[in-house]
Design brief:
The structure holds two protein chains of two kinds. Chain A is an alpha+beta fold. Chain A has helices at residues 64-68, 73-79, 88-103, 111-139, 143-164, 184-210, 212-218, 226-232, 237-240, 248-251, 272-299, 348-360, 368-373, 400-412, and strands spanning 24-28, 40-46, 49-56, 173-174, 177-178, 315-323, 326-334, 340-346, 384-388, 395-399. Chain A contains 14 helices and ten strands. A three-stranded antiparallel beta sheet of chain A has the order 1-2-3. In chain A, strands 6-7-8 form a three-stranded antiparallel beta sheet. Mean pLDDT of chain A is 86; it is low at 379-386. Chain B is an alpha/beta fold. Chain B folds into two domains: 2-136, Beta Polymerase, domain 2; 138-174, no CATH class. Chain B contains four helices and seven strands, in the order αββαββββαβα. In chain B, strand 3 (56-64) and strand 4 form a beta hairpin. The model of chain B has no long low-confidence stretch (mean pLDDT 90). Classes of the chains: A alpha+beta, B alpha/beta. Chain A binds chain B through residues 1-2, 5, 8-9, 11, 57-58, 61, 63, 65-67, 69-70, 101, 230-233, 235, 245-248, 250-252, 264, 316-318, 320, 327, 329, 331, 333, 342, 344, 346, 350-351, 353-354, and chain B through 27-28, 30-31, 33, 55-59, 61, 63-64, 72, 74, 76, 78, 80, 83-85, 87, 89, 106-111, 113-115, 131-132, 135-139, 148-149, 154-155, 158, 162.
């Protein structure tokens, strides 16, 4: 099996161990305008076609797993969302479910708490998918779509901010339940906004399927067949675009995903358009789930937070959740104290790299941005900052423009920031 | 144990030889832990991959115990008609702490490459027959003999090393 996928066993990046037939070598990254995150791609070309592609990762090790071994289970609840900039809620959800299972209190979580958790997860999926296909359109040279999608994404971010106080890191979950309730007036306020967003996403779908300038960039590009997909094991929308109909929400249902009405989306074509359609359809599916959840919340009552002890008894558990990008895998071992013995996180993007490299074989170099984007490399997109004056303790909340304006003025006129 | 083993064999539609499997526990409905000695791991994985047709590897995690290392392969048995998955944790036990080595499963799973190299980085466990067992995640300047996820290195020590290599890098850039 290894002979077929030799690309990553090339020893050097300077082309000295190049694959046979390749005449040019393109190095992308670690710092590159295409990608906001550090990753190094090596693409071997023959003429305009790709012969082989390789990747080097590991420019951004933060040591979260080691840090978790030095903090208590309760403290880690707030550390774990920082594993990812944009799918923070799903990491927290998998973590709290794992801790609840080890503590043996998974039956005590009320339905209301589970529904609020599910709303947080689905809202995250919606804004992550909208963000992704906006940037995909930008990579394909269709910038109008980027601005349209990001304008509409604000609707769901406003709802998340209303419910949790934060835009992209809601941090609603705790071991034993949730932190905040969703009161009826807030839910009523959100319903018409969701209706509006459904209309907008239907319009996005129309653009992606009918507008030739974007469709031609995506159709029949970077095909990953089902046989190849079984070998390189992609997860999430990347796999579902290639005809592997597996979603953790359906495969091993958690929270109340088996009690709510929703359809599994999968396509069999395997090209970039198929993965895009998976995400577009999933966004619509998640939006109708959000509406259902808010409707069910009206009639469901229950304690938001169950009682949980600081110390978690010995044991190990393997928990999974469906992140916007694929399956999010956590494995935790408890040793009877209040800190974990070992905690392992596998974020979905690592499992999708193989599939993306496989997609590139024999494609044009002009299609690289679209193919590289296809597995949805993770972005951090928080738009606001809080600036604290160290001397006086004064706080200011600024958006990006104000921050930039202040910073430029301070630099230009050599003035203090405040 | 034998009931659980029979249930697992029924789901996978194969027979697992008794001498290869050390123990099977049922975590919850449709979720199993399989324990296996390091000498039998390759043969057992061969049966699971080729006879039972398991092709999805979620991840691999390394675990440090008091007197041994464990390596845990998290694999999924997929039933495509029902859209179901059966998670199986294959825990390889009794990896010697002084000379840690275990067979590489790259022959069965392409995805095993990154995960095995990550464990090699973090724990220094050597995967036999891996064609390209090199550094994946740790920084280039990281000292070769420091395996950061081992219990002997505390959080403060790791911070010190990180600061040291960062300073070296900055000085070299000047």
């Amino acid at each position: 099996m290894t002979e077929q996928y030799r690309s990553r066993f090339r020893t050097l990046t300077d082309g000295s161990d190049a694959p046979p037939g390749a005449d040019h070598h393109i190095f992308i990254g670690p710092q590159h305008p295409w990608a906001e995150e550090p990753a190094h791609f090596i693409i071997h070309l023959k003429g305009e076609r790709v012969v082989e592609a390789d990747i080097r990762i590991g420019f951004n090790l933060r040591g979260i797993e080691k840090a978790m071994e030095n903090k208590t289970w309760r403290q880690n609840t707030m550390l774990i969302p920082r594993a990812c900039g944009i799918c923070s809620a799903v990491h927290q959800n998998v973590y709290v479910r794992l801790a609840e299972k080890l503590a043996g209190i998974e039956d005590q979580i009320s339905e209301r708490a589970k529904l609020i958790r599910m709303f947080s997860l689905e809202a995250e999926r919606i804004h992550s998918h909208i963000l992704w296909y906006g940037i995909l359109a930008h990579d394909a040279g269709f910038d109008t779509m980027l601005h349209v999608t990001w304008r509409d994404r604000e609707i769901i971010l406003d709802i998340v901010e209303d419910f949790s106080g934060n835009r992209v890191n809601p941090a609603l979950m705790l071991i034993g339940g949730v932190k905040r309730d969703i009161p009826k007036e807030k839910a009523d306020r959100a319903q018409p906004m969701l209706d509006k967003l459904i209309k907008q996403v239907e319009y996005h779908k129309k653009v992606f399927t009918e507008e030739a300038s974007i469709r031609n960039r995506l159709e029949d590009v970077g095909i990953l067949t089902k046989e190849d997909a079984k070998k390189v094991t992609p997860n999430g929308p990347t796999g579902r675009g290639s005809g592997l109909p597996f979603d953790v929400r359906k495969a091993t249902p958690y929270e109340l995903y088996d009690k709510i009405d929703w359809n599994l989306v999968y396509y069999t074509e395997g090209d970039i358009l198929a993965t895009t359609m998976v995400r577009l359809d999933e966004t619509l599916e998640s939006l109708q789930m959000c509406k259902q959840i808010l409707y069910q919340l009206e009639s469901t009552q229950g304690e938001l937070l169950a009682r949980v002890k600081q110390k978690i008894p010995e044991g190990n558990y393997f928990a999974r959740g469906e992140a916007p990008r694929g399956e999010d895998v956590h494995y935790g071992i408890a040793n009877g104290t209040d800190t974990p013995e070992r905690y392992k996180i596998r974020a979905p993007s690592l499992g999708n790299i193989d599939a993306t490299l496989k997609r590139m074989d024999g494609e044009y170099v002009a299609d690289m941005p679209v193919i590289l984007r296809s597995y949805d490399p993770c972005f951090s997109c928080t738009n606001r900052v809080m600036v604290i004056n160290e001397v006086t303790g004064e706080k200011m909340i600024l958006n990006q423009d104000e921050f930039a304006r202040k910073a430029i003025k301070a630099k230009k006129y050599n003035r203090p920031f405040f | 144990m034998s009931d659980v083993l029979k249930e697992l064999e029924g789901i996978l539609n194969i027979t697992l030889p008794g001498n290869l499997v050390e123990g099977v526990t049922k975590v919850e409905e449709g979720h199993f832990d399989v324990m296996c000695n390091v000498t039998n791991a390759f043969d057992l994985m061969k049966i699971l991959r080729e006879d039972a047709g398991i092709y999805h590897l979620s991840t691999i995690s390394g675990v440090e115990k008091d007197d041994e290392f464990n390596v845990c392969y998290h694999i999924q048995h997929r039933i495509e008609d029902e859209f179901k998955e059966v998670p199986i944790n294959l825990i390889i036990t009794k990896i010697d702490k002084n000379k840690p080595k275990t067979p590489s499963m790259l022959e069965f799973f392409v995805a095993a490459d990154y995960y095995e190299r990550e464990i090699y980085d973090f724990y220094g466990i050597y995967f036999e027959n891996h064609p390209f067992l090199q550094r994946l995640i740790l920084p280039e300047r990281w000292p070769d003999d420091v395996k950061p996820m081992r219990k002997e290195y505390g959080w403060e020590q790791i911070k010190e090393i990180t600061m040291k290599i960062t300073k070296e890098g900055l000085e070299e850039a000047k």
